[in-house]
Amino acid sequence: MNLSSSPSTAPSTGPTSAPSPGSPAAGRAGAVTDVAPLQVPPPAAVFLGPHHLVHRPDTPEGFLLSATPPGRHRFGFSARLSEGHPLCSDSTAPFHDMLYPMESLRQMAIFAAGRYFRVPADRRILLADCAFAITGLSSWQRDAPADARLTLDLDLTPADVVNGVPRSMDCGASISIDDEECGTVRARLVFLMPGVYRNHRADSRRESELTADGNSGLPPGHGTPGAELVGRCSLRNVLIGLPLEEDDESLTFPVNIPAAREVLPDSGSEVPAALFLEASRQAALFGVGELYGLTPGHAVLTRWEAVFRGFAEPGLPLVCSVRPQHRGAPGEVLRDAAGRPFAELSIVFTQGMRVVAEVSTSVLQIC
Fold first, then answer.
1. What is the pLDDT of residues 94-112, one digit of tens each?
2. Are 39 and 11 in contact (CB under 8 A)?
3. CA gap 264, 12 in Å, rounded
4. Mind giving me the DSSP string for 135-184?
5. Residue of 205 and 270 predicted with greater confidence
6. Which residues in the chain are classed under CATH 3.10.129.10?
7. Average pLDDT of 146-167?
């Protein structure tokens, strides 16, 4: 059930300041009671730039006394979608990267778990499932050179509370770009005690080692697809290899974990949290070109849903298999209300014979 694990405390990175009265982070008049610095695991390069995180209590005691009972808490997050990010600004399609709000939600929830929900610092924080959906495509259009403003209205709700400490938390947010609501994102976090985490991790490792052979990079001599075939401009950001197996209905790709740890956030000793989103996106874009004849460089994911079945080990080979989600004639595409072609795909990540994650996604051709 793990996408990636992260300690519940870590050094803060990136500047933080109180929102000005007119900023989107300020939200409703009189609702701002706390501005919290972002705490993130230290990646090779800071993923989030300057940002605001605002606590918005919706009870009298929370507003007046800053009380934090273990119920739902609301937050406002705002940041600039910079055009200079080496990964998020590297898309061939002229759209803002969905990785930014997904990772923002995850990091905000990790911070809030310790600050507002009393999760002890030694708990391991795992992602059990997560999803996003684009509801207004025009707002995602990049208009260089101006930076766009991203805002998230977050609801964080603890679950399975024992002695005031939650064992899990449901996270959801609406996404707005330049004040236009245009998407949703959600996730479920699980908080494990150290001993439980070690036992689950050891069991997963033993099961993978029985059937997984090789290292966590690409097979020796195995090449990578051209960057434009996976929706990227730079080869540095290509995280999958050429297909290991392919037929008319499916493709199987090796995932380059060492390359992912160089370019993705939260890449300490674990498989980076964002690997499954980025690798599945690249596999899906390559897949719509091979299976449907669409153009990967002019396609965008409009829906992505993932469920995690176990721990991905950073030292073992990881592969992802792509196939059409619905049975039908080979290469038959669907059409949206505007007549644009799109495909719905299922993607499964495995280490050896063990399923690590299952993904469902929709890819829209922009034409």
1. 899 999 899 899 988 999 8
2. yes
3. 18
4. S-GGGGB--TTSPEEEEEEEEEEEEEEETTEEEEEEEEEEEEETTEEEEE
5. 205
6. 5-192, 196-365
7. 90
